Amino acid sequence: MNTAEPRRRWWPRSVRARTALAVASTAAVILVAIGWWLHRDVYRQSTQIALGQAQAPLLALADQLREGKIPSRRSAVPFEVVATGRSTAVASGGGMDVFAPGSPHVLPAPPRLSEPLVTDSGWYYEQRTIRIPERRDEPAGRFDLGGGTYAVLSTDIWAGELSSTGAANLGVSPDATLRVHVVVLPHTTNAITDSVNSLLVRAGLVSLVLISAITYFTVRIALRPVEAIRVATASVTASDPRERVSVPATGHEITALATTINTTLQRLDDAAAQQRRFIADAAHELRSPLTTLLASLEVALAYPDRTDWPTAVTTAARQTRRLQALAEDLLLLARLDAHAPTTGSGTVDLAALVSLLVEQYGLPDRPVALTADTAAPAYVRGSKGDYERLLRNLVDNAARHATSRVQVNVRNQDEQVVLSVHDDGPGVPGEDAERVFERFVRLDDARSRDRGGTGLGLPIARELAHRHRGTLALVPSDLGACFRLRLPRAPAPPEP
């Protein structure tokens, strides 16, 4: 059966392309916003300029009317002069003069004035937005301004300011009011705005292309150290994790990444080296009892008549027990290294557990006294089996190296339970206080292999202590060795 092809995504997979596309999209949004703002501002300013330019024709037309002259129809701007009491325009031009004689005026007439308008500058004007009506009685195409809405500048003139001859020339009564309308056409404003829009579009497209290209190649250059790190880490193998990546001297994030990767590779290298040492030490520890056991059995089989069978069986049983203990320790360490969950999370009375261990502990074939000092119950949380193994390892270690006695103390100190195992043996040098917790480590002199240890008791005890959020350390002592265990104190369980 054919499997469906994976759906192709339009989003690119390359970090360089993704970054360039994201930056280009962001830049496009910003450029569109800036372009819209520029469009509105250019249109507004162009409109203001057009209005300012229309003031001069308005002033000139008003001056001609005050002199009693009818303005010429030839004008760069559309204008119309209307008066009260007249249905036709006094004068018009610039596109407003296309109507037949006797046609009514297009723009509204002013109210009647009784005196001239006086201002500080001597004249005034008003700005209005007026919709110019269509003239259906005119042939199509002659009046292009009909139906549009335009900005219109207007000023009023009282006919009483004129001479009788001037009023007669204009065809208005002496008490009439004249209004000059100048229509501000948007053609120039639209042309300027369209030109600016075209420039903005071209500049925006070029900017987007440049921004995308610069971003793409900048990210490509910035990711070169990452590619070098990828190539270097790809060559790292489980058998040879000694490869290291080069750390850039720039001090940026790539430097931190390279440093972190080198630190991780170093930890892997250390873990691999530790694993190799562990395997070699485990093989060596297993070979010693196996060699003894095999030699004893081969001698017994070669000379069955002259073999002391009880002694041979005793030797074989002793070496087998040693192999069994070593195998159990290795399995426990493997479980602890794999962070397997503990079996039980109840409350354990450590003081009662110590007392029980001291009563049932089998002492070695040497005069060693094992005593316990437990003043009050000491409750901790965790697995009872793990605590038994931890205490037995500490007591076994102390009993193997003690001269005459081993003392176990349990005390409650604030929020902790403190357990101490003290022997009167030769002690441990200060420089070896941490080495004794390494796997398969045996110190010289009295703490050697001939005492029966596997070199895993103390490492297992520390792992179990850490597993229960505690600490195990070798503390200084005037006589012998003193191992101190600290565990978080737990509340007493409710009475049954």
What does this 3D model show about the protein?
Keywords: Kinase, Membrane, Phosphoprotein, Transferase, Transmembrane, Transmembrane helix, Two-component regulatory system. Its main location: membrane. It catalyses: ATP + protein L-histidine = ADP + protein N-phospho-L-histidine. Residues 281-491 form the Histidine kinase domain. Residues 220-273 form the HAMP domain. The protein is of the alpha+beta class and 496 residues long. The chain folds into three domains: 11-222, no CATH class; 253-336, Orthogonal Bundle (Helix Hairpins); 343-488, Heat Shock Protein 90, CATH 3.30.565. Helices cover 45% and strands 15% of the residues. The protein has nine helices and twelve strands. It has helices at 15-66, 164-170, 187-222, 224-234, 253-302, 309-337, 350-360, 384-401, 457-467, and strands at 79-83, 91-93, 126-131, 149-158, 177-184, 346-349, 369-374, 379-382, 405-413, 416-423, 471-475, 482-488. It has a five-stranded antiparallel β-sheet with strand order 2-1-5-4-3, covered by helices on one side. A five-stranded mixed β-sheet has the order 7-9-10-12-11. Helix 5 (253-302) runs antiparallel to helix 6 (309-337) and helix 6 (309-337) runs parallel beside helix 9. The two termini are 65 Å apart. The relative contact order is 0.07. Mean pLDDT is 82; it is low at 1-5 and 445-450.
Helix content: 40-55%
Task: Give the total of beta strands.
Answer: 12
Structural class by helix and strand composition: alpha+beta
What is the average of the pLDDT values? 82
